[in-house]
Amino acid sequence: MPYEIFVGLRYLRAKRRQRTISLNTFISIAGITLGVAALIGTLGIMTGFKEDLQSKILGTTAHIIVQERGIPNMSNYTTVLKQVEKIPHTLAAAPFIYKQVLLSSKSGVQGIILRGIHPEKESQVTELVSNLKYGALPDLEYPPASLKSPHSQTTPPTKPSTKRKPGIFLGKELAARLGLFLGDPVNVVSPVGPINALSMTPKIRPFVVVGIFESGMYEYDSSLAYISLTQAQEFFNLGDTVTGIQIKVDDVFQANSIAQDIEMTLGPSVSAKDWMHLNRNLFSALKLEKTMMFLLLVLITLVASFNIVGTLTMIVNEKQREIAILKAMGSTPKSIMRIFMLNGLVIGLTGTAIGIPLGYTFLWLIQNYWTFDASVYYISKIPVHVLGMDVALVAISAIIISFAATLYPSWQAAKLNPVSALRYE
């Protein structure tokens, strides 16, 4: 073992007259440990929330949206569907219609987003089937003759009409706000209707609630409804056109490059936007928040580094005679610096080694023993996911800060004059 390592490790140990140095060493290690644990815990929770939000968004919206540039409706969507399905990495595609309407019931009126979907193809693109709490996708085109509300024990009577009302899916919060259950009628009001001699008349059509879904996001569950594609085309007088095509790919993180391939294949008249681009404001805010939290929590490690500076400064003052003897025996200033740099690295490495499992333990306790009311917070447990890159970044930053804290005390020890230190010995 090089003598620098032997001497450096020995300086960190306490003797009977040097208990203060040992206590400061412990405090310095504890500071680094808490800083590392806090960083890992915070980054793990923020990553978990981001991925939970990402999964909920991708469960309701497609990975890529294809639309005509400058044109609200796409007329040749069947041809585009066939071309898109041949592009590598695309798993499925389905047409959709996207409009803003009003829903009116006996309990109130609510402005919402109405999506017309193809029931058979929708299950291949989004997770609407798994989000449905009540109902089934075929009910949109073929509503059951009688529907039983899960909130009541009686089956609503069916009217003896030859023409059955078309079906509609409502979000859980939207249905609760309008006081609607399965089998209840609801009117869809489009502000764009037929034009008469005086003004434009709103178009109204009755629907029946055949399903209720819960995506896990309040924004979707309170302002989104689904009807069949054919009913949407008929209601909005679109003919054989759609708003666009939604696509599912095999790798959600490569959706941007796949969208560029789609644009190159279909030509400049088509615009393809991936889910990150459609939600860029939200994910940019989450990324900025995670970065700022990392920088703020690094301050804990910086505060701990001042303890390292104080500890090493005390060691230098206590060990002036030993340093002078080492220099008199032939130790170079670089060797003296290495002794005290080693002390700081040992403190940093020890604190990091303890802080990483402590951070994981903290996250495990949070995830398993901290529960919420899912009806209020939309989650029952705090989502946690620790990335290896985040752990490496935290460990490297803690070690670098610990090493930087050793530079000044080590330089002070290296420039010590042995004659001045041994003059009164």
Summarize this entry quickly.
With 425 residues, this protein is an alpha+beta fold.
Please provide a written account of the structure.
This protein is an alpha+beta fold and 425 residues long. The chain folds into two domains: 3-56 and 283-422, no CATH class; 70-268, no CATH class. Helix content is 53%, strand content 16%. The chain is built from 17 helices and ten strands. A six-stranded mixed barrel has the order 2-3-8-5-7-6, surrounded by four helices. The model is unreliable at 150-162 (pLDDT under 50).
Fold blueprint:
Elements: H1 3-12, H2 19-60, E1 64-68, H3 77-85, E2 90-104, E3 109-117, H4 119-125, H5 128-131, E4 132-134, E5 167-171, H6 172-178, E6 185-190, E7 203-213, H7 218-221, E8 224-228, H8 229-235, E9 244-249, H9 255-266, E10 270-274, H10 275-278, H11 280-318, H12 320-328, H13 333-369, H14 374-377, H15 388-404, H16 407-414, H17 418-422
Parallel strand pairs: 3-8, 5-7
Antiparallel strand pairs: 1-9, 1-10, 2-3, 2-6, 2-9, 4-7, 5-8, 6-7
Helix pairs in contact: 1-13, 2-11, 2-13, 2-15, 11-13, 11-15, 11-16, 13-15, 13-16
Question: Tags for this entry?
Answer:
alpha+beta; 53% helix; six-stranded mixed beta barrel; 2 domains; 425 residues
Number of strands: 10
Q: Roughly what fraction of the amino acids lie in strands?
A: 15-25%
- Roughly how many Å apart are the termini? 30 Å
Characterize the main sheet.
Answer: 6 strands, mixed, barrel
- SSE run: HHEHEEHHEEHEEHEHEHEHHHHHHHH
Q: Segments where pLDDT lies below 50 for 5+ residues? A: 150-162
